What does this fold into?
Amino acid sequence: MKTKILTLIALGCLVFASCKKDEANNPDVPKEEVLQINGKEYEIDFLKRGLSRLLAIPLDKLVYDEQAQVFRHTYFAMALNPVAYIEDIETIKREGYEF
It folds into this structure.
């Protein structure tokens, strides 16, 4: 009797785990934001990490402003336009710096 119940429970768990999950309707999963600069698409996270590394600003202090399409420092009234820094970010990435 116990073996049949355990087999049914294991089978139920297996069926439940193998079901395809629909992630498109899940609002908790953030969508990758992309910014187009000079004809290339860059992820916002890549630009944020690059600016952080390039300008020695902690990651948690940089915030992306979608309307103005700039990064802002949380402590200072400054706007960092990623277009002005994209060549430098690509250069440090090519040279092997991790960010």
